[in-house]
Amino acid sequence: MGFGATAQTPETIALGNPYGEITVIGNTLYRGGQGAQVGTYDLNTSDFTENIIGTGSGTNPHLRFAVNPTEENVYISEFGGPIYAAAITESNLTLIQQGATTGGEVLGMAISGNTVYYNTTAPQILRFQMNDPDSTQEVFFDPASILPIFNMIIANDVLYYSTQSDFEEPIDYQLFSLDITATNPTPQLVTTTPERAWTFVVEGDVLYIGSDQNNSVYTKDLSDSSAQEATLLRTLDLGNATNLYSIDAAGDFFYYSSTGQEGGIYRIALDNLSVSNATKTTLTVFPNPVESHLQLSGINAVTPYEIYSLDGKKVVSGDYLPNTSIDLEDLASGIYVLSLNGVHHIKVFKQ
Q: Domain Prolow-density lipoprotein receptor-related protein 1-like beta-propeller, which positions (predicted)?
């Protein structure tokens, strides 16, 4: 059964496949993923029956697509392949146009007006005109850097893209904005996140950011022009799935998908996306880098903690007591992630 905006736990829309990108338009959720398929779900129904509207030629779940509902078309790129346009019918996709070659894997795609924008592993952001078989792709933005562009979206004539500051630690994960109406747009730093910003969406004045590295959701108030670090809202419980892959927000709901053989698609009321006030606190970890004992401020009660290496192995765990410390003396030098109560995730540098 569907649930209202007061629900506190996620509702399952689909389960059991490595789902990829999702987007919600009106009352329809479009998804990529398993078998390079594009499927839809009617969000007005209670059983969420899937309708497969098209299957690509490959099997890679990392299919990227952008839907243009006014033209009833979807633009699709499979792993490393060209972009092509297809008409959405009630039961299938009909190829209507071969698009431009990508010059690399397409990592993000969005539509604004009559223009399709996409970013590749090059890394560049390119664009071409819809419904014009002779349209030549052009470079919209070239960062003149080999640093990756992970993804991109467009909202209100602003293109947002995510990247990183360096290839070596410490790394800052960054989101920038570009004015797509400008002739020579200049990137503006919007915010930073402690882990990779793999997927993001704008709803109203709020930028929601999802990381596939710690399966957490962050937020940035776009009415605040300062480029402060995004605020952690929630670490998503993905069950036995592998990673968070895609997020969207529409109406009263927040939607997300996960990868792996037990991946799924879920939604939760936006009002209940953030963690409870009991778990919201200002935390300080010191010293960081640390040689032996790590201390925390802002913890006022016994709090479970876990420390993970970057390959995901849990190396230390216990219950943190206020005004004490965590003994890390036996840990090898390197970078670790401290998880507090499954909500807060903080990088720790061990000397």
A: 105-273
Q: For tokens 């996960």, name the residue.
A: 258
* 233-287 confidence digits (pLDDT tens): 888 878 777 789 999 999 889 999 998 778 899 999 888 787 543 344 456 788 9
| Domains of the chain from N-terminus onward | 11-272 (2.130.10.10), 284-350 (2.60.40.10)
